[in-house]
């Protein structure tokens, strides 16, 4: 029987380091693009030093999520960035806003539970909860720190972002579900309908075309957690095209 230290070393060796950092960077861009594109349109926007703590927090969450999905649970290596993310949430926001503090505690808590009970969460409900947390945590915190207020109109603008998360993370949550083709197709239709709430322009039409192409590609490839960087890249391109200002 392996001792914990040897087991931990083997888990570190199993990490795909070539895709870990690029995928984490792409995830950070997915979180940051929408609130940044919104914030630069507001004249009173101030990018304060609290954003440094938020970016450090994002790095930890992105690394942990990438490791969890790649190793399909049971990895002690994901616990380290999750614990560090708690520290950044506490040090960066507890003194400023309790709402942000609670909001930023939810993703690491969910990922920690997800890590321990991965297969119980790999279903449509787990996918929806993950999408909601990814949509409403970092983007909302980024906006509140920069703009100093939140409006219902901004939160409604995040609905397409929620569906983008659900659509592109479905292969990671539903890879073993025989209903995957049907669910992915339904998510694609809902995503396109929500995208049509955005101003109609060339970039939006390109985003819709990319969603259709992505659906075609996903239907013809085996859902594989090691394809994370491919899914994240498609997600980022779709996000940028959908929310292009």
UniProtKB/TrEMBL annotation:
Q: Which residues cross the membrane?
A: 20-39, 51-69, 75-94, 125-147, 154-174, 204-222
Question: Is Iron given among the entry's keywords?
Answer: no
Q: Which UniProt keywords apply?
A: Membrane, Transmembrane, Transmembrane helix
Query: Hey, what's the signal peptide range on this chain?
Result: none
UniProt KW Transmembrane keyword: yes
Q: What protein does this entry describe?
A: Integral membrane protein
């Amino acid at each position: 029987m392996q001792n914990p230290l040897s087991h931990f070393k083997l888990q570190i060796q199993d990490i795909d380091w070539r895709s870990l950092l690029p995928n984490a960077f792409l995830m950070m861009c997915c979180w940051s693009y929408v609130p940044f594109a919104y914030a630069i349109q507001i004249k009173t926007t101030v990018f304060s030093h609290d954003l440094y703590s938020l970016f450090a927090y994002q790095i930890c969450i992105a690394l942990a999520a990438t490791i969890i999905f790649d190793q399909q649970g049971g990895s002690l290596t994901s616990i380290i960035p999750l614990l560090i993310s708690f520290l950044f949430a506490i040090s960066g926001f507890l003194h400023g806003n309790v709402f942000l503090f609670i909001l930023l505690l939810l993703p690491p808590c969910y990922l920690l539970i997800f890590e321990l009970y991965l297969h119980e969460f790999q279903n449509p409900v787990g996918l929806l909860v993950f999408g909601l947390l990814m949509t409403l945590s970092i983007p909302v915190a980024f906006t509140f720190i920069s703009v100093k207020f939140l409006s219902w109109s901004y939160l409604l603008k995040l609905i397409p972002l929620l569906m983008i998360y659900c659509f592109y993370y479905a292969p990671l949550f539903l890879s073993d579900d025989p209903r995957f083709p049907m669910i992915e197709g339904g998510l694609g239709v809902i995503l396109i309908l929500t995208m049509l709430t955005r101003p109609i322009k060339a970039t939006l039409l390109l985003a819709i075309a990319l969603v259709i192409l992505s659906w075609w590609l996903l239907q013809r490839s085996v859902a594989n957690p090691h394809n994370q960087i491919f899914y994240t890249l498609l997600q980022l391109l779709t996000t940028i095209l959908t929310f292009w200002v």
